[in-house]
Design brief:
The protein is built from ten helices and nine strands. It is α+β, with helices and mostly antiparallel strands. The N and C termini lie far apart (54 Å).
Length: 250
């Protein structure tokens, strides 16, 4: 059996005391050169990870926040796989002096503050799960974990969507007179199939550009409005998406 991808944890797997040794990086390079895909799965928040691990660009996908955030190092795109935590929950814990780290979706603290966390969840009537990892206490939406994040990163529909999106964008940039309707329809169907598990800026840009090229401005605006409504990334959007949005009718 030939494995085409490998998923690795960060702390205690490739990193020790937060640092990835050079010999581990060298091994990852050899794996990458063999044609295999590399995926990093971690409970850490993305800004922290970017600050301590400059070699992150060797990975094809990163699942951060214990499964709540997808990151594509090659394009610096992110996609939330869960909702942002309620402000009332954060305010409650901060008022009680609980030390917090708040990501796009995850809320993390340390033992022995799990009692305050569980009480706040109960009092506010929230449907949250609490995950313990050594001394860490992580709060996430139900069903959101490393396995679900990895599944989203490996989604076959997502891979197909990327290829079709690239085809559409290349046709637009080549100023082809028309884009085949079946191709544009396929991209739209893939958009619908994957948007609940995360749509990337690049793919959204391709769909919007394709609709504009087909003179379907109303549909293009609708797709853009929907996408920007659900996009919660705190990192600036991809330049391709910004360029396409500049062509939308005002």
């Amino acid at each position: 059996m030939r494995y085409t991808a490998i998923a690795l944890d960060y702390d205690g797997t490739i990193a020790h005391d937060g640092v990835v040794p050079q010999h581990v990086l060298d091994g990852l390079v050899r794996l990458k050169e063999s044609g295999r895909k590399l995926l990093l799965v971690t409970g850490r928040e993305l800004p922290e990870l970017l600050g301590i691990f400059p070699g992150i660009t060797i990975f094809d996908r990163v699942v951060a926040e214990n499964g709540a955030l997808l990151y594509r190092p090659a394009t610096q795109e992110t996609k939330d796989l869960g909702d942002a935590p309620p402000e009332a929950f954060i305010d409650r814990l901060e008022a009680e002096g609980v030390p917090l780290s708040v990501g796009n979706t995850i809320v993390a603290t340390v033992r022995p503050h799990e009692t305050a966390v569980l009480q706040a969840i109960a009092d506010l009537g929230l449907e949250y799960q609490v995950i313990f990892n050594k001394g860490a206490v992580m709060v996430l939406p139900p069903g959101c974990n490393k396995a679900s994040g990895l599944k989203a990163a490996l989604s076959p529909a997502r891979g197909e969507q990327s290829l079709v999106a690239l085809d559409v964008l290349l046709r637009v940039r080549a100023s082809e007179p028309t884009i085949p309707r079946p191709l544009l329809g396929r991209l739209y169907r893939l958009h619908l199939a994957t948007r609940d598990s995360g749509v990337w800026d690049f793919e959204a840009a391709a769909l919007i550009a394709g609709l504009l090229h087909a003179r379907k401005a109303t549909e293009a605006v609708a797709v853009n409005d929907y996408y920007m409504g659900v996009r919660r990334s705190r990192i600036e959007s991809h330049p391709t998406l910004r360029a396409v949005q500049s062509a939308l009718p005002r």
